Amino acid sequence: MCLTMVETVPPTPAGDSGPTREHLLEAAGTVFAEVGFRAATVRAICQQAGANVAAVNYHFGDKEALYAAVLKESCRVALEKFPPDAGLPPEAPAENRLRAFVQAFLQRIFSGGPSARHGQLMAREMIEPTAALDGIVREEIRPMSVRLSEIIRALLGPSANEETVRRCSMSVVSQILFYHHCRPVVNRLFPEVTFTPEEIDRLADHITRFSLAALHHFSAENDTERRDNPNFASQGDHD
Amino acid sequence: MCLTMVETVPPTPAGDSGPTREHLLEAAGTVFAEVGFRAATVRAICQQAGANVAAVNYHFGDKEALYAAVLKESCRVALEKFPPDAGLPPEAPAENRLRAFVQAFLQRIFSGGPSARHGQLMAREMIEPTAALDGIVREEIRPMSVRLSEIIRALLGPSANEETVRRCSMSVVSQILFYHHCRPVVNRLFPEVTFTPEEIDRLADHITRFSLAALHHFSAENDTERRDNPNFASQGDHD
DNA sequence: TGACAATTCAAACAAATGTTTTAAATATGT
DNA sequence: ACATATTTAAAACATTTGTTTGAATTGTCA
User: Fold this and answer.
1) What pLDDT, on a 0 to 100 scale, did the predictor assign at position A1?
2) How many CB atoms lie within 10 A of CB B187?
């Protein structure tokens, strides 16, 4: 069926080939994030981009390729704007690195703009994974996961086994993602909850404190010699 | 346009009107949970139910009403099979009630059958809320939320303010939902993680211990008199 | 300017899908 | 058994949607 296909893919593979291509990427990012891949229509995307219906197929080949391009680009932008280490060196205290990790993650998800759109797209990928998810996990999520694991391992102490590190990592990430993934329910349950920058800061505080408390407890549980050390119960002046 | 419409809705409002209606509900539950409301086709549902294409409209009016019926029914079944208190009386120690809450929630989500389907449907509702979400929040989620809040409040002590209770409640629920909501990523990151009943138990253990450690810390932070009470640090023989 | 490639555009195509219609089949009550 | 209501079935309808087509337009370089 592709005998008559000469070259529908754009001759210029990537970059800023033209304004239409970028408008398309921008509009597609918005529409995909708003209604998801399936519900998004190329007509809606093209209209928002001020382009013709055939523009998607001309510049990207088909709708799915456009989606992959959007996902890749939004991922790049989000990580560039809010790097996971938030500028902290690896030698910084693990408590601070955890705080920075949590805050950067929350900002990446909740601050408006293309970074937030990436969060929306990823949330949809969780529910309905596309072929693009494998690449995202490999290039974005796994590096982030090992980075967090290192922080957690430093906090748990050397005697913590890998399973505990993994479980605790997930306990931390879960708290970050919850407000985003369950936003429709959170909004209905607690309409007073907002996501202003200040509120994001307070949220990062809570998640960090909640997690550090648990991690310090786990750490003390492993190294029995430290069990009655009162230092591990007080936490809050670590910055 | 509805002048010629006489009575497309079923004369028997609910209950076990006929085998076809139930087959439809069953098949629709499976298909909706698998591919979501939008991607599910009434043709696929009817085929799986062994019914004619027109059966959906005859018995439920339209596709959306069928979806609402599925959501309502799956919610009923899930809560009936795994009640949030897991048979524990309200006078039981808060630690035990928390453990029961976590375990029942995890089982509701991960054990197969109609109960798990409800979890799938709810996950999709989070990402793409339908009109049915308001009812679910009112009748299912909010009661569950106040129940958890009571447990958390008991653990935090009387001096904890509402905001802390709310935040800690979310920290607990988030850990429960994470493995479910982010399953595609978890599977790719840690293929060794399974969700057998035993693993679910261990997961419930971790979440409960992690949360109790943090909550006891918060509690001690508020009531400074309890700070050095060693009871709040040891927890692990609660069954 | 003129030829050639790249891009845009309007129209149409083909497939999928929710819904309706009309008739046949089945059950129900007398 | 007959009449009536209920349910099922096949076909068609109307709309949406991703994609293609071929002409028109624009840009580029000699």
Assistant:
1) 33
2) 16
Q: Which of B213, B196, B177 is nearest to A183 (CA)?
A: B177
* B62/C8 CA-to-C1' distance in Å: 41
Work out the average pLDDT over B49-77: 94
A32's tokens:
């995909």
Alpha helices in chain B (DSSP H): 19-39, 42-49, 55-60, 63-81, 94-110, 114-127, 133-136, 142-156, 162-181, 183-189, 197-222
Residue A137 and residue B189: Cβ atoms within 8 Å?
A: yes
pLDDT digits (tens, 9 = 90+) for A36-93: 999 999 999 999 999 999 999 999 999 999 999 999 899 888 888 877 777 778 889 9
CB within 8 Å: A213 and B213: yes
Topology given in CATH for the domain delimited by B3-61: Arc Repressor Mutant, subunit A (1.10.10)
Q: What is the pLDDT of residues B121-175, one digit of tens each?
A: 999 999 888 878 888 899 889 999 999 999 999 999 999 999 999 999 999 999 9
Interface check for B48 against chain A (CB to CB < 8 A): the answer is no
CATH code of the region B73-236: 1.10.357.10
Give me the DSSP letters along A90-144. TTS-HHHHHHHHHHHHHHHHHSSSHHHHHHHHHHHHHHS--TTHHHHIIIIIHHH
Domain residue ranges in chain B: 3-61, 73-236
Nearest of B114, B125, B115, B119 to residue B37 by alpha carbon: B125
Listed as ranges, the nucleotides of chain D within 7 A of a protein C-beta are 5-12, 16-22
Q: What percent of chain A has pLDDT over 70?
A: 85
Query: Does B78 have pLDDT greater than 90?
Result: no
State the alpha helices, DSSP H only, in A4-93: 19-39, 42-49, 55-60, 63-81
B211 touches chain A (CB under 8 A): yes
Residues near B189 by beta carbon (within 8 Å), at least 6 away in sequence: A137, A141, A142, A145
Residues engaging strand D (CB under 7 angstroms): A 4-5, 8, 40-43, 53-54, 56-57, 62-64; B 10-12, 17-20, 51-55, 58-59
